[in-house]
């Protein structure tokens, strides 16, 4: 909810009101400080925007102070709108901070500027306040809990104990806070253990054992204690959590103590060293008790935090599991807790490689393609040509018409509608310019000019500009690869199931995305660019660096010159829709989300369609249409389509498959050579041109990335010829590997 406090209606207040409507935020408007305060106390808004431009109406800082005196404002974001001054020095923001403002907004009545400000607030300060509210609730629960909790800093200074802990140890409220553990009376037996405990926990392992603690009055109590280090900022130990159990004379547990993770709730290192413990005491669980306090049901404390925040689908799943635990026997409850631990990871879709018999080829491919690299180890920087002059329409000669294509090129494209079309024959016939010619033919077949309302000459100029900005010096990521992906995309679009699913605008977007998806590729991986500190990696924050660059540059090249702007005659809303689909498809080619895309496709599309067939609903067109035509599923299908087109080389006829394998290997070899020259981390060490086994690398890539994805795509689009080529190519590479050959082809 947003509260706007403006004494008078003007362009600025109207812009914020429009922005609230667009963002879907509930909005109230107050004209006076009194009405603003009353409205806030009634509605408890998340964001308050106060006009500070005209002091004659009211004192904005005084109003902010008044709001901040209320308990309800503790988690409220308050924005100050100030005048724009271009003729004098920037004033300090400290008085605004002192008054209680969260940040300031320099007046700008642009509607989109106001909208962007609100969206940034929502995903920045407002979400942070949601988390703080959840933490407050969590600590309130801990304060009322009967369980004892102690949290210390990395320097063993006590930062938190709950009332149950203070009562158990005989201390007054707050008496232990900020005391070092050495100031707290301890039994000599405990002192004897300190060296052993420290040697364990300082390397990140948990420690568990029995020792005697001394209460404030000098009485000794025997405890079963577990101490857990908590990894926080910088990957260092930032807190220690102690979990104690009071023991009676028979060493039976009388009381259990729980802990929370301070600083890092997603840390997994503290649970990698599990012990054979009695009673299932777990740092990630809380204890659920019946009215008599005797039942020992384990709960996930993090799941409760999830349930306090925005109701995302994963939150609903966690809440369902929590509910199921309520009436489950202990083995089932423990199994569900393990499931919750898995669900809390951020890499839900990425398989975890083993550590013992891990294939180095697979490991290096995953490291090179699915990570953003290590931090660079030297001062060297690889400067990608961010400042290079990109080819534009005016600097290129005019391409010939589709009707004037030379006979050899026409002949090379005769069977372009077939999967076995030879892109390398076209590459040779066009002198490494296959994209313009193949693009002209495929785009004509799909009626792209008619859809875009652009002339053939504009399309020709656009194709030439895009092709000119592919690097012909790259052995793999050049315009031939782009033409190959365009061909595969067009082939998939012609399959009956795909045609049932996608609209004309989706087909246009797919063909354009395939054409531009690797434009200006430097022949190096994202990991390399991040390690080298390239300008692009800095620009895109080490996230989907190349894919973001391809999409952005494609639109820059297209729209900067009317001669090649294929979008210039489109209606604005249709252009926005087309642009969003193109960008989404280009970004889908980034490999870090590979398993997420594939698994979502299988679970949202393959499995529901298979269930309909098993239930005898094969002819139920409406049920199938519901699965295929939902907006969410159409997005998944388009992502899967371009992903399969992008890495379809192992499904090509053997000679093409071999040629592509040689080209990508050479590009990886060149990257390894450059990494070693520059002293950068070598992200794929197996791609050493002197030692690499190309058959092994191909088999690893196929096994890890290709088989499951194309099994799923074949089940959807019906591609028996591709699967036959894939099986034959696997046999070919296995044959070479079985003979311990590291080359592309066997000797004569």
Question: What is the strand and helix layout of this fold?
Answer:
Layout: E1 2-5, H1 11-23, E2 27-30, H2 33-43, E3 47-51, H3 60-68, E4 77-82, H4 94-99, E5 103-106, H5 111-144, E6 150-153, E7 158-161, H6 163-169, H7 188-201, E8 207-214, E9 220-231, E10 237-246, E11 285-288, E12 297-300, H8 301-308, H9 313-326, H10 330-343, H11 360-369, H12 407-412, H13 423-429, H14 434-445, H15 448-452, H16 456-468, H17 479-493, H18 496-501, H19 504-516, H20 526-532, H21 535-539, H22 545-559, H23 572-588, H24 594-614, H25 621-629, H26 631-646, H27 654-678, H28 694-717, H29 720-738
Parallel strand pairs: 1-2, 1-3, 3-4, 4-5
Antiparallel strand pairs: 6-7, 6-10, 8-9, 9-10, 11-12
Structure, briefly:
The chain is an alpha/beta fold and 748 residues long. It folds into three domains: 140 residues, Rossmann fold, CATH 3.40.50; 102 residues, PAS domain (Beta-Lactamase, 2-Layer Sandwich); 330 residues, Catalytic domain of cyclic nucleotide phosphodiesterase 4b2b. It is built from 29 helices and twelve strands.
